[in-house]
Structure formats: C-alpha cells, structure tokens
Amino acid sequence: QVQLAESGGGLVQVGGSLRLSCVASRRTFSRGRMAWFRQPPGNEREFVASIGLSDGGPKYADFVKGRFTISRDAAKDTVYIQMNSLKPEDTAIYFCAARTSSSTEYQYWGQGTQVTVSS
What average pLDDT does this structure show over 45-61? Predict the structure, then answer.
C-alpha cells in the first residue's frame, strides 16, 4: 500500500506563492502518474495537474496554466506543485494522488493540505 503525505499548505495573500510537496511512503511502481487535485469549499474535487512517473509530460487544468508548475524528484519519491499568482478561487484542500499505468483511476490518495488565499 502506498501512502502519500502532503505538506506546504497555509494562508497566503492574493498574488502570493506556495509550494506543496507530496512524499510517497515507498517506491512501488515505476510507471503511472502522480497528480494534484483540489476541493474548494462546497464544491466537488477537481483535477489540477499531473506528471508521469517514467514518461508522459505534465498536464494542467486550464484554470492553472501559466501559474502552477508540477515537478517530481524521483530520488526523493516526491512530487511538488509550485503555485504562483494565487487567487481567492484557489482556496481549497489540495490532495496528492497516484495511479499505476494500468489504471485509469487514481488509486492512492493523501489526506490533503489546506490552502487559503486571502484578498
């Protein structure tokens, strides 16, 4: 069982930046993807960005393109998301997720980290 742990959330002002980290408990699969999702208050969880573990470039939701950057440090089993030019609508719980290459659904999820953008 892969466990994912997010960190780096917090309170930031409009236009500010945060970097979230997601550490996997162990390296269990070499192919697949890791991703960030978010759940704004009162809304459904939505996709933010993903990155391939061995191949496949980053993918982003339209509402974060040009502002967020996903990256991965394979040696540390860690995925990051750098969030710049934050807006109040970016306020959400951010979740890290992972899936194997044989799955179309994300099988492993972290507990989430709160990001609050104040105006």
Answer: 92
85-90: long-range contacts at Cβ-Cβ below 8 A with a sequence spacing of 24 or more?
A: 85/15, 85/17, 86/12, 86/14, 86/15, 86/16, 86/17, 86/18, 86/115, 86/117, 87/14, 87/117, 88/14, 88/117, 88/118, 88/119, 89/40, 89/63, 89/117, 90/38, 90/115, 90/117
Q: Which string of DSSP letters, residue by residue, matches the chain? A: ---EEEE--EEEETT--EEEEEEESS---SSEEEEEEEE-TTS--EEEEEEESSS---EE-GGGTTTEEEEEEGGGTEEEEEE-S--GGG-EEEEEEEEETT-SS--EE---EEEEEE-
More confident residue, 53 or 61: 61
